[in-house]
Amino acid sequence: MSKLIVVNLVKHYATRAEPLEVLREASFQLSAGESLAVLGPSGSGKSTLLHILGTLEVPTSGRMILDSQDPFALDATELAAFRNRKVGFIFQDHHLLPQLSALENVLVPTLAAGYATPQAVERGQDLLERVGLAARSEHFPAELSGGERQRVAIARALIQRPRLLLADEPTGNLDRSSSEKIGQLLLELQAQDGHMLVVVTHSHDLAAQADRRFELDGGVLKSE
Ligand code: ADP
Ligand code: MG
């Protein structure tokens, strides 16, 4: 069983004045199939926490173990492979590549070998269908609505079957109705695939449906 173990994560940023303490000894554990919502005001360290969990940033101290591996003990090549295989990331802004179609965007994480295998293409099409975009696979991001772009980003985050799916205010740029649908979709896909989900959100509806809720306040992570 896959597990995420986070122990005393601390993040400081150097500034010209004293170091900024953005995360203070955050600890928690998450098991396969569990969802965690992280709430908190702007500037409370939510994105910093997610970036560390996604191995996009290194903690100042503390440990994180995912699937029995400490990603921060890996060298750069191993870490890139770990991130590619184990973690999916959804940002507030979809971060799709404008010159690629929806399907091509979904396949980007599989391109380490230089080309998409037929199995990857099939899985990409299957994921686009699961996020309700089977008829949009050849569309470019500019030809999609905000909610549709975020669906493509979700399919892309799932293409490698990550153990841990991280979403940083995934509905922050969407209207209320699209936002609710995207929240539902994240929970549905998680129930089907059994990955861990950590979602930063201002939506109390979405947070209420997650298995657990944490609040970040001034860098301190508290269970609600
Ligand atoms: P949130 O996502 O909750 O709005 P962030 O994690 O983005 O908060 O930021 C938390 C705090 O850390 C903010 O005060 C922000 O200014 C600061 N911060 C974030 N990234 C950096 C950085 N690279 N260098 C210095 N300070 C940063
Ligand atoms: Mg943020």
- Please tell me what the overall shape is: globular
CATH class: Alpha Beta
- Residue stretches low in confidence (pLDDT < 50, at least 5 long) are none
Name of the CATH superfamily: P-loop containing nucleotide triphosphate hydrolases
CATH topology: Rossmann fold
Overall mean confidence score, pLDDT? 95
Describe the structure.
By secondary structure, the protein is an alpha/beta fold. The chain has a single domain (about 35-60, about 70-224), classed as 3-Layer(aba) Sandwich (Rossmann fold), CATH 3.40.50.300. Helix content is about 35%, strand content about 25%. The chain has 7 helices and 9 strands. The chain has helices at about 45-55, 75-85, 100-105, 120-130, 145-160, 175-195, 205-210; strands spanning about 5-15, 20-30, 35-40, 60-65, 85-90, 165-170, 195-200, 210-215, 220-224. Strands 5-6-7-3-8-9 form a 6-stranded mixed β-sheet, sandwiched between helices. Helix 6 (about 175-195) links the parallel strand 6 (about 165-170) and strand 7. Helix 4 (about 120-130) packs across helix 5 (about 145-160) and helix 5 packs parallel to helix 6. The longest helix is centred in the last third of the chain and has 18 residues, at about 175-195. The mean pLDDT is about 95. Magnesium ion binds next to helix 1.
